[in-house]
Design brief:
- The protein is of the alpha+beta class and 524 residues long.
- It is 36% helix and 20% strand.
- The protein is built from 18 helices and 18 strands.
- It has a seven-stranded antiparallel beta sheet, with helices on both faces. Strands 5-6-10-8-9 form a five-stranded antiparallel beta sheet. Strands 1-2-4-3 form a four-stranded mixed beta sheet.
- α2 packs antiparallel against α5, α4 packs antiparallel against α17 and α16 packs antiparallel against α17.
- The two termini are 34 Å apart.
- Bound molecules: flavin-adenine dinucleotide.
- The site of flavin-adenine dinucleotide has 38 residues, from β3, α7 and β10.
């Protein structure tokens, strides 16, 4: 993983000349004055943890699994949001952990948590490091030091129950490896977020992730039938049946807990048979409103396809749904329809009939294949755009169908008000019977301090989402960036409940301090 960008550095791409020109002509983007820092020049704070504390950590995991090198600390600094990348490029590594610790078992995690609670060492659980909401930055105040608890050694598929269609995984398995291991059994999770190449199963559960095929396979939290959580107060084992009426479901307290309540050390996940066939294609609608009516009909009356996304007019024109063919978009609004599994012909024909009835025009397989080919490429494009002097960031929300137009307008207006004339693109990314999520991509010229510039815009958007009745996150999570808005969503009693859970599971407050749990009184 690139230390100051996304993904495999070998896949880094030069920005095509047509996009450079478009950025300059449309938005006034200019190349930045200062080049990005080199890895050795990034400034990290000195290691604050004293030698005896490091030795005690090493006594649990073995000395080879406690790392304090410049590179190890730097690679566990923050996540992969645009402000995270901009800070790294500016040579700012001030949020680096003092050490990276790699436990090899649930027992080692539990022992480390006991030790850290006694020594007042803050612990940041670290999966793939792809958080985009500040979920990997611990507040240091009051702690002896901070460790990143890298779960990469917990990387096994432990068992498959083919009769129940359930697989038992350790949390540090990256998504491609999970798919490879399941493929040996003819199975799949069907979870393909854009961060697929690097994110881990534990991170998906901890941040309530949602993948591009969520219409067919569900969100990640739908897939978790059981889990183990190591906490400083002991271990929770949850999920002994697919559904239960035995009181509130505590799994739901752990899903989305972002490392603030404990460390997920195993996951029991619902799996499906690998699809024999896949078919992706494009449809054109005259307007976002018409396209929204069509995807709502599929979500409410069926048949629900496996992939369903609708780009607005701007995103369609830019061609963002097909990052490998960007700049070649068309008019109207593009729908990507994907059907996987059995009875493809029948299911496709039924979904196509609904889209056609709502005024959709079939564009054939080419846009669908281009989307499939480029479905993980957009983050690489972000790196090229950052280097060219444009800030590119994404944000998302969700709401009920009847409120979606208001939410769409509120976010756009907040971005326009805060940034002048940015390029704002949107797509409906996940659909449900009662509503959908909206996923925005923003491109704006870097001005002054680009991190502060974006933070001002982000604050305006957070306030607009709360005011317009949407949720502050559909799938990116809360982290630090959404914590106050989450507090506003929950209200004082809800925040109190969350704080009580935190206090019970983590009385010393060592787990991801500053992340998820709003301060009192909540407000935005
Ligand atoms: C380019 C890009 C594209 C993305 N696309 C999507 C997308 O399509 N859909 C989507 O849902 N998200 C997306 N994300 C966000 C991110 O990938 C998800 O939030 C993902 O779930 C994080 O997984 P991770 O393994 O990288 O976790 P990390 O980033 O390492 O951690 C995320 C949070 O969970 C905690 N955590 C991690 N592992 C554990 C554990 N085992 N136990 C307890 N807490 C833990 C961490 O402390 C942190 O607070 C994207 C991010 C990027 C950078």
């Amino acid at each position: 993983m690139s230390w100051c960008g996304w993904g495999d550095p070998a896949k880094a791409r030069e920005l095509p000349e047509q996009i450079r020109k478009l950025l300059h002509d449309l938005l006034g983007v200019r190349a930045p004055d200062t080049p990005a820092a080199a890895i050795d020049d990034v400034r990290l704070p000195p290691v604050a943890l004293p030698e005896p504390a490091l030795a005690a950590l090493a006594a649990v995991t073995g000395p080879a699994h406690v790392l304090t090198s410049h590179e190890a600390r730097l690679r566990h600094t923050r996540g992969k949001s645009t402000p995270d990348l901009l800070r790294m490029r500016a040579g700012d590594g001030s949020d680096a952990p003092d050490a990276v610790v790699l436990p090899g078992s649930h027992e080692e995690v539990a022992e480390l948590l006991r030790l850290c609670a006694a020594e007042r060492i803050a612990v940041v659980p670290f999966g793939g490091g792809t958080s985009v909401v500040g979920g990997l930055v611990a507040a240091r105040a009051g702690f002896t030091g901070v460790i990143a608890l890298d779960l990469g050694r917990l990387d096994r598929l432990r068992s498959v129950d083919a009769e129940s269609m359930v697989a038992d995984f350790e949390p540090g398995v990256r998504a491609p490896e999970a798919e490879r291991l399941l493929a040996e059994h003819g199975l799949t999770l069907g979870h393909f977020p854009q961060s697929f190449e690097y994110a881990t199963l534990g991170g998906f559960a901890a941040a309530r992730s949602s993948g591009q095929a969520s219409a067919g396979y569900g969100r990640f939290d739908d897939m978790v039938v059981g889990l183990t959580l190591a906490t400083p107060s002991g271990t929770l084992e949850l999920g002994r049946a697919p559904k239960s009426a035995a009181g509130p479901d505590l799994r739901q307290l752990v899903l989305g807990s972002e490392g603030a309540f404990g460390v997920i050390t195993s996951l029991r996940l619902r799996v499906r048979r690998r699809p024999a066939e896949r078919r992706y294609e494009g449809w054109r609608f005259e307007s976002f409103r018409a396209g929204t009516a069509a995807v709502r009909a599929l979500a409410q009356e069926g048949p629900l396809p496996t992939v369903l996304r609708l780009s607005d007019e701007t995103e369609t024109m830019i061609g963002l749904a097909r990052p490998d063919a960007i700049g070649g978009g068309g008019s109207g609004c593009l729908v990507i329809l994907g059907v996987e599994g059995d009875w493809i012909g029948h299911r496709h024909a039924a979904a196509a009939a609904v889209l056609a009835w709502h005024g959709g025009e079939p564009l054939g397989p080419e846009p669908g294949q281009a989307w499939e080919h480029g479905r993980f490429s957009a983050p690489y494009l972000r790196d090229s755009l950052l280097g060219a002097g444009a800030t590119v960031e994404t944000l998302e929300t969700a709401g009920f169908w009847s409120n979606l137009p208001r939410l769409y307008d509120a976010v756009r207006l907040a971005l326009l008000g805060a940034l002048g004339s940015p390029l704002v693109m949107c797509h409906v990314s996940h659909v449900y019977e009662t509503g959908a999520s909206l996923y925005f991509t923003v491109v704006t010229p870097q001005q002054g301090d680009p991190v502060e510039q974006w933070q001002r815009a982000k604050e305006a958007v957070n306030a607009a989402i709360v005011e317009a009745g949407g949720t502050i996150s559909h799938h990116h999570g809360v982290g630090r960036d959404h914590r106050d808005a989450y507090g506003a969503e929950l209200g004082p009693l809800g925040v109190g409940v969350l704080q009580a859970v935190k206090e019970r599971l983590d009385p010393a407050g060592i787990l991801n301090p500053g992340v998820l749990v709003p301060q009192s009184p909540p407000g935005i």
